[in-house]
Amino acid sequence: MHNPPSLIHSHGLWLPVNHWASRAARQLGIPLIIHPRGMLEPWAINHKSWKKKLAMAVFQRRDLDSAAVLMATSEDEYQNFRSLGLELPVAVIPNGIQLHIPAATEAKPPVRVRKALFLSRVHQKKGLLNLVQAWATLQPQGWRLQIAGPDEGGHLAEVMAAARKAGIETAIDYLGEVDGAEKAAIYHAADLFVLPTFSENFGVVVAEALAHGLPVITTQGAPWAELVTHGCGWWVAIGVEPLEVALRQALALSDEQRVAMGERGKAYVQRYDWVDIAQQTAAVYRWLLGQQTKPDNVRLD
Predict the structure, then answer these.
(1) Which domains does the chain carry?
(2) What are the φ/ψ torsions at residue 222 (nearest 5 degrees)?
(3) What does pLDDT average to over the chain?
(4) Is 15 helix (H, G, I), strand (E, B) or coil?
(5) Apex CA 14: angle with CA 9 and CA 19, to 5°?
């Protein structure tokens, strides 16, 4: 191989490309970093678990054990690595987001329909059926529930069927898959962000929503306890009733109170600037290559 790499940083698990990356690192005798990206979270392992067990027995465990370091995006993900018996060094580095966000082109008029936004994959893991049930119980006047993101595995049909059964189909807008300026505009137009997920290793959309000045409701399936400590959102148990309680509180706030929460969120989320995340990651690379001492974000315990 001409100009072989000095190390390999593999993102994800289970797929042949991840296994090939691990094999290449062993063959070349270079350090391997494995970044599972949530694929070792309990919910993820239990989803189609027989396939995961087979892959783990055939190749995945060996690949994990051959890594020089694992990367976790949160303290929760780090703890999940240890609970699986993985004793490798772990670098705990969060995901980053784009923080240089243009201001909204128009101010929100005082008389308008308010919007609660879900933006993520439309997938059973994201808890949308719980959200539909909670929204159906509340049926808030002057609010619409917006759902944006790609439909995976036909789950959107299941969600909308549940909405029809609950009699709230006309209160829900599906916006489709969005990106770039269109996604930014949807964030700017919203008044509240909701991610009722069963499991997230990080939850980039939570950070994006905070960066756009939205108060956030998410579950304890995502590592966002600091929403509460920083006064910018709700971090609730997984399920319909806790979600309903948080929604009731959020919808009862004045616009001014929600804006104040959003401003606190914008200040808090500055720690997730991509520039800083890149510098932390580069420090791990240099450590593995013997160019510097172990960074503080690498855990050996």
Answers:
(1) 8-96+273-299 (no CATH), 114-271 (3.40.50.2000)
(2) -120, 145
(3) 93
(4) coil
(5) 55
